[in-house]
Amino acid sequence: MLDVPRISFTSRVATMASMASIGMSYQPGLLPRSTGEQAILTGLTSAVNYGLVAVTGSAVEAVAAGVVGEERLARPGVAAIAHATAHATAALAGVGVWRLLPRQEGEPIKRATLRSAAWITALTGFTGLAASSVLGAAEIAQARTGRNYRNLIGPATLAVATAAAVGLTARNRRAGSRDLLAPPHDPLPLSDQAVLFEESRAPKYEKAPSLAKSLVFGAGVSAGIYAAALGESLASDALAHLVSRTSPSLAPFANWAGHFITLGVVAAAGVAGLEYVNRQADTGGAAIEAAYNKQPTMLTVSGGPGSQISFATLSREGRRVVNMALPAAEISEVTGKPAIDPIRAFVGLASAPLVDERVDILMRELEDLGAFNRKVLCFCSPTGTGYLNYVMMETLEYLTGGDCATFALQYSLRPSFISLDRVAMGREQNRAMLHALTWRLRAMPEDQRPKLVVFGESLGAHTMQDAFLHEGTNGFERAGVERALFIGTPAGSGWANRWRVNKEKADPAGELVEVASYEEWLALPDEQRSKARIILVSHHEDPITKFSPSLAVDVPSWLQEPREPGVPRGLRWRPVGTFLNVGVDLVNSTDVVPGVFVSRGHDYRADLARFTSLAYDLPTDEETLLRIEKALRARELEWATDRVQAEQLQRATEALQRQLSQWGISDLTSAGGSLTSPTA
Hints:
- The structure is a single chain.
- The chain has two domains: about 10-180 and about 215-280, no CATH class; about 285-540 and about 590-625, Rossmann fold (3-Layer(aba) Sandwich), CATH 3.40.50.
- The chain is mostly helical.
- α1 (about 10-25) crosses α5 and α13 packs across α23.
- The radius of gyration is 30 Å and the shape is elongated.
- The N and C termini lie far apart (about 75 Å).
- It has 23 helices and seven strands.
- β2, α13 and β3 (about 405-410) form a beta-alpha-beta unit.
């Protein structure tokens, strides 16, 4: 029989567990997944399970080697018995710890981590017991027939694990089909939006991959895992041999050390890759969009003629904020009422290196632009890139007739999910700014003070809320903040979590409410709505509001019964696996179509007009609100179109310049022509 490379027993156990996890990756998520996203989830789930079981299994086998001895393990039949005994013991120990540590509400994360580690140990033990049984059967058959059956173990393992993956995949796909969410839609009546949108422009969500594709993925991932396991096994065996030679006393633990080092190198490579992504994200966040490379002409915005802030320091998102300010004429056209040009102020990271310096710049900017003479001051905390939700800003400007000032401080250039290391800076920056605002407003006569409100979306909600981390809602009153609106609050917000755990302590006056929709708001008691001055809008199926590191080791409240609407019943918690499941859902949580507003996932555009009116106590009639809703959609589509045209024009100009350079022509004007914007 042809002798093929063999993977170690540890790697074989890890491979079996990894392949079995393929089917679990097909559990329904909070949002529909595309075929590509499912492939990513399947690969991640398999890889992580392989690493966890490999490290755990090698530790179990190290104990067995220490008890039995390396020499005795080399005897026929001894290894299978020793491995079976060790893994059976590990399985029983894991189950025992799991049952001894039932979940408790508000338990320490250490307890949850220990319980999850017990679950992994039990999984490793049962899988190792199965693998050792197969190995023992092969050795018995070889002893009786004289034929070597070991080379059949690998293909047999692959076939059995793939079959298990297929069965679990089919079961979880059936569970997912029962949890299909209603297709997203714009809440405006079709008759009111028919002129603005075509049905073909509605957001497209791929259905779950077909069973055939799922099986192909499963088989492909299984084969890939087996190949990767072979490579990891060879590398870890080489390292184990080196450890045994250099330190004979550590020989029983050499196998564990080999797997630990090999997988550690892979993890380090992943960390290095993440650092590279961060550097690239910083570069991308600093890049300027072609549509916003011109200085604004409005006198009431940063970077404009009436501003002391250099337009060059505003960053991509800052330039977008000031260029998209609504002129008074456009406000009046929609509301039918007199209006003035609103104030928008933005201080980017490039404006000053230190937090206090950026706060001082923004305070001077607000003074110069006349912000403290306006009706409403809206202090916003941006997302990771510096993005501010223009739907909220424009709604505020419509509702106040432009008699408002919206302003923000940037704390990062990266997308929110890789800006978590900037949360502390954002929090301290917001605290410093609130402190400065408090003293400035207290110096004004009470009857002349503008209304101070705050806004935060996603990571911006986190950094603004945590400025009041240990104060609950009382912190808002201390700072002179009259109203607040937060959308898509991340699960990591310490302030929000403290409120959810102990509402009476964090909000003694009952001024805070959290809802998923306007319908839920209407369902609240009248008394609760009348007292609310801090509103959190969090969609039930928004993965950003549910994704946190604790999800890897503990069952979250939203997966317990009774479940929130929109949370699939087929989604069951598993250590690490559910963390990866929800993590992949983050990819399409903000998948939007310009001009088409839907209330789903992390897209809150359809909620913002009505909740801006409610949260900031700026009532209006339904007819005006409908006109504002339509204007918001039309304006977003117009700006998106302008951005695409500007980008295409810039690419065409750059391509033409490169061609002219090859001809020895230094610029377009010397060639006797020019390019003009398609909208000119």
